[in-house]
Every structure is written in C-alpha cells, then in structure tokens.
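WP5 quarterly update. Target: Oligopeptide transporter. Source organism: Aspergillus felis. Length: 562 aa.
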Amino acid sequence: MSTSDDIERQTVVTSNEIKGEPKQCQLAASEHDEENLLPVVDDVPFPVWLLAFVGAAERFVWYGATSPLPENYIQHTPSSKIPGVLGLREATATNIVNAMMAGGYLATIPAAVVADTWLGRYRTILVSALIQLCGSAILFATSFPRAVQAGAAEGGLAIAIMLIALGSGGVRSSVAPFIAEQYTETTPKVKMLKNGRKVITDRELTIQYIYNVYYWTVNIGGLSALITTVLEKYVGYWVAYLVPLCMMAVSLVPLLAWRHTFVRHPPSGSVLPQASRALVYGIREGFQMDAAKPQKQQEKHQRQVPWTDTFIDELKSGLLACRVLYASPALDIDSNAWTTDMIPSSSLLFPIHWLCLNQTFNNLISQAGQMVNSGVPNDTIKSLNPISSILLTPVVSRGLYPFLTRRRIPFGPMARILVGFLFLTLAMVYTAILQKLVYSTGPCYDQPLACPESDHGHIPNQISMFLQTPIYILGAIAEIFCFTTGTEFAYNQAPKTMKSVVQSVWMATAGVGACLAMVFTPITKDPYLVIMYSSLAGVMVLTTVLFGIFFGKHDRRKTLLL
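Structure tokens (predicted):
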C-alpha cells in the first residue's frame, strides 16, 4: 500500500464530464465499485505532454516541409502566377508527393522492427528525429535562390524527401505506443470529488484521452502549413523551410533533457522471429493459431517451441488489430469457421480512407489554385483541417464521449471508425460537386488557367476558394473518429513486445493509400477531375458499407482473426 503522502499526490483526476475537484482516493476498487461508479479519466503523466510535443514537432516539420512542395515548389516555375521552382506540372507533382507520403508511412514498418527488436522506442525516436533534422537541413540549404540557379534544387529535394520520410516514419511508429506506455496504472482507483461523489478511474478511457491529447497537439504542429505557405509567398522558400528546421532542432530538447523521466521497456530481441515462426505454424494448420501453442506442437509434431500459450494469445490479439486495420476476413470465436461475408476487396478499406483523406495534400490544393483566392495563398486553405481538428477535438473528447459515458451508451472503436467513414464520404461527395461547379464557371470552365481569357494563367475561374471549407471540416471530423481510434486500437490490441510493429501496421495503411493514389494519376488533370472525385466518393461509400458489414458487430461480440 502507498503512504498517505502517495495518496495525496494522486488526488488530481481529469474528469471532463463531472464538475468538482477530487478530494481523496483509494488505490484499489472493488467489483462493486467497478459496476456502480462512473468511470473517469485518470491523471495524465508529465512525460505524455513531452512526447506530445515531440509528435507535434514531427508533424510541424512534415507539414511545414510538404505544404509548399506539391502544387507550388514542384509544379510551377518561377514565372508562374503562383511562383514555384521546378515546373514539373500537376500530375508529376502529385506523384512525387504521393511517393513521399507512401515512403513516410511505409517506413514505419522497418523502423518499428528496429524499435521492438534492437534499439527500443526511445532511441528509435531520437535517431529518427536526427535523420529528419538532416533532411530538413538539406531542403533548406538547396532552396536558396543561388542553389536553385546552380541546379541543386532537384537533387536536394530528392535526398531531403527520402530523409524526411525515413525520419518521420521512425518517429511516428514509436511515439504513438511510447506515449501510452507513460501511463502505467493498470488497476482502477476510487476517487471522491469535493461534492462528495465517488468516481472510478478507467485505464481504457485514460488511454483514449491520451491519444486525443496526442492528436490535438499533432494538429497544432499541422498549423506549420499556414506559416510556411505565407513565408513562401511573401519572402521565399528558404525562409519557409528554415522554420520547420528550427522546430525539429527544438524537439530534441525534451528528448535529451528529460531522457531519464520516460518509462522505457527494453527491446524484445528475438520476439519478432518467434512471432513469424509461430505464424507460419498456424498458417500450415489451416490458419489456426492455437495449433502453434506448445502442447499442440508437441502432440502433433513432437516439436518443442520457445514460446508459451500466453505468447500465442497475445500474438492473436495483435493479428486481430491488423485484421481490423486492413479489414481482413474474420473468424467467429464461437463457430470457429470463416464468415460468409468475406471478399478479397475488403483488404483495402482503411487504405481507401487514407486515399480520400490525402487529397488535401495535393489535388485539393490544385483545385484551390483554379479558384478565386482573394489574396490568400492557395496552399494555405488546407490549414483549415488542423484548425478544425484543434477546435473540434475537445468537443468530442470533453463533450461527446463523457456525455455517452454518463448515460452508459456504448460507443466502441468500430462504431467510432464507422462514423468517421461516414463523414469522409460526405466530404468526397461535396468535393466532386464543387469540382463540377468549378468546371461550370468561367472564364476557362473545364480548362482552368489554360484558356486565352486567363491572361496566361493569371485569371482563375470565378468561384471562391473558400467554398472548400466544408471539405476540411468534414475531413477533420473523420480524422478525429478514425485516426485517434485506430491509434488507440492498435496500441490496446498489440502484444507488449510488439507495440511499435502493430502501430506501424496501422500507420502503413496511409502509405498503401498513397500508393493507391498513383493509380488515379491518369485522371488527375483537367478536364477529368470530376470523374476522379466522383470515383473516390463512390469507393468511399462502398468502403463505409463494407466496414459496417464486416465489423459493425465487433463492439458487441468477440471475434478473432484465427
């Protein structure tokens, strides 16, 4: 038992839905307490805020570096209406940015393997941050006018993109599980508010709250796009890229200054090879992971294996997370048979979600460039996404979720993801309609900035860029429900020794989505953009329906992959 001083130190509780400060607490809760007291969020440890800052800095660099890239730095020439550098046209610019996004998200997988097997999460974050810092420095150095004139821009951009993507993947794959590991309480505690009401802390709600905090700070980092695009337009690209470089350097301070504050778990060493071997054994037995358990292997194959039954059960839990994130077929734990609603196309549901959401990084910026911007840089408009997220995340985490908790209304992870999919579907439908309106408006109609009336690309179609606002608001709501839930779900379902790997599987869905975006390259140009956005809207409708069919029941009954 803790001393009275220990108890006194634990009297602050984050209880968003209940007024009144905690008065006292006891460390253990009885079954009666768990059944009858209202669950609340526990104290958030200080290292959580430090890592949230590191995550925000990584996003600051990512968005700050990529925001001027696609439709300005890469697409336009210095003499264009929207000044650029390389002049490689929209389709090429879109492909380069999609490749960078794919690389950044897919790099999470090897980085996660390194974190879980050799370096550990803290060292992986530190090394990855240094790699990203080097990439930012190269991008800054090669964006000077003299460097551009000397022909260093293209080569510098290629190297910078690779380093930033690699570093970003390493930071993201480890920060997400590492931030949740800083909360070490595993047993519920009873706390009494000053108004005399007893409440009970809940680990699941606390982890959910931590990831909402993480998402909120990440979106503050996303505001760098607003800063860099303004600097790009009114000062120059080198100044725009100096800001994220400085921010990345600052992010190293908490990692180094408070390095002894973080809760660290040693890397697992041989766990991943063992997991791979166990998975092979399970596949050989007809996709039955229980067949890989020691007793089964000894009875059937007279084979001794170095793992335990608990290891296999944890591995199954991690595979369940991977199944949901990639929407693979399910096996009902009761019937022990493959469900009848399985089709191969189900394996791309979450990547399709990212395919649609990632339009804000490239094609929607181009769409804004075809519209009247009223003096606001066209690539500034996408800052409405993080701004909306910053404003709406507290509404959801401090308003909606506590409201549902007070009334004992279940709103599990699959339901939250489904709601996010619905909002993203609405965003894509609206985008297709808006593109049709752009093509229906002069002077150039379905050839914006390309007709003689555009004065050599200086007069856009006469429709306001700010009509894009609902797209970014709807997309932000979709992210609030999907991103935070996916991150939380990946952490909760992953085995303790494979947190980074399962988290990287979740992150990699965005990389797969970026790869899918390249399929649309042939129609990523005028006058085919209505077709492209309509296709994405239709695919998102199908994705939402399929996800509801496959996983709508997961919050109510237990299903397993194997």
